[in-house]
Amino acid sequence: MPIVDNIRAIRWEDQQLCLLDQRLLPQQEIWLKLRDYREVAVAITQMVVRGAPAIGVTAAYAMALALHEMRDLTDWQPRLAGAAAEIRAARPTAVNLAWATDRQLALAQKETSAETAAAILLQAAHDLLEQDIADNQQMGRHGAALLPEQGGILTHCNTGSLATGGYGTALGVIRAGISAGKQLQVYADETRPWLQGARLTAWELQKDGIPFHLNADSAAAYLMQQGLIQAVIVGADRIAANGDAANKIGTYSLAVLAQYHRIPFYVAAPLSTVDFAMPAGAGIIIEERPENEVRQCAGHDVAPVGVQVRNPAFDVTPAALITAIVTERGVARPDYLHSLAELRV
Ligand code: MRU
User: Fold this and answer.
1) How far is CA 121 from each of CA 4, 20, 29, 68, 111, rounded to the nearest angstrom?
2) Can you tell me the ipTM of this complex?
3) How far is it, in rounded angstroms, from Cα 42 to Cα 53?
4) Which of 25, 34, 176, 296 has the fewest CB atoms within 10 Å, counting from its CB?
5) The organism sits in which domain of life (predicted)?
């Protein structure tokens, strides 16, 4: 089955960064047009754009916008460093955000002319967007070989075109598997509390004609017990050097369930998601998001007024529960400390 891959949620048009507002999907397809890097940082915090690679690309554009704004100032270099700190602080867990911001800052710091540096940062942001799509397609080719010829594939959160420059990480592997002729049935966790699975993955799969069922997160164990799931594949927001992987809250539970049911558990992520400076997952900062995301569902109260809430947005799956990590440079297997380091540029 040829796979349609026509969704893109980040584009540059008329000197503006255009973002498909993911808070409003699937009911409305509204594009925000941003010129101010501060607005872009807020858009990342508020999840207009989300997903580790997508916020990395967005941060690269935010840096280009910041430098464009400062290009006539003599002290543009320290000011740009200040803007980088603001952009980096938009969300703490996905390393791609800091990685892309720091990369842009380092590029600019090599230049003496702000005008030249601004043009370089804009081109670098375009290149990063294109590279991300190419890396995802490459990841798809490596990962598709791991999937069965037919069967059910469980995924969590949204890891597709919306979460990246395009094509997707874990969803990219699924796309590639289907393109290669595999008879796959996707099971998409709804992914409470923000419902990335119900709102975004379901929208994306439906738009691209990929066969799937949406299921409540709590149905995962039952689906596995019924023999409907042959593999689990998820993305990652930050992978420590030892292979421990931070991803959307609920991922760790899936890995435990997969081990119990003897189902392979795969993580797909570009090497920019691997934080080689972080020795193990325990050091990863886990974002806590607003309490109302749990108290409410689709904007409606579902819990008694005033209840206390914990809302960690991510959890860390220990490397020992991960069968393989798929990257654009190939597939890493345990022990990840060595296999990931070998894939590093
Ligand atoms: O809070 P989100 O929606 O930004 O979380 C996204 C995820 O956890 C994804 O699984 C991860 O970023 C990988 S996306 C290719």
Assistant:
1) 31, 22, 29, 9, 11
2) 0.99
3) 17
4) 296
5) Bacteria
Pairing between strand 265-268 and 324-327? parallel
Q: Separation of 237 CA from ligand 1 center, angstroms?
A: 6
User: Among the atoms of ligand 1, which is closest to the Cα of residue 53?
Assistant: 15
Q: Could you tell me if 139 and 173 are in contact, meaning their C-beta atoms sit under 8 angstroms apart?
A: yes
pLDDT in tens, 11-64: 999 999 999 999 999 999 999 999 999 999 999 999 999 999 999 999 999 999
Judged on CB neighbours under 10 Å (0-12, 13-18, 19+), 57 is: buried
Say how many Å lie between the CA of residue 94 and the centre of ligand 1: 8
Find the residues whose C-beta lies inside 6 A of ligand 1.
50-53, 94, 157, 159, 163-164, 169, 196, 235-237, 247-248, 313
pTM over the 0.95 mark: yes
Encoding tokens for residue 219?
Answer: 């149905």
Percent of the chain with pLDDT over 90: 96
For 345, the token pair is 């540029």
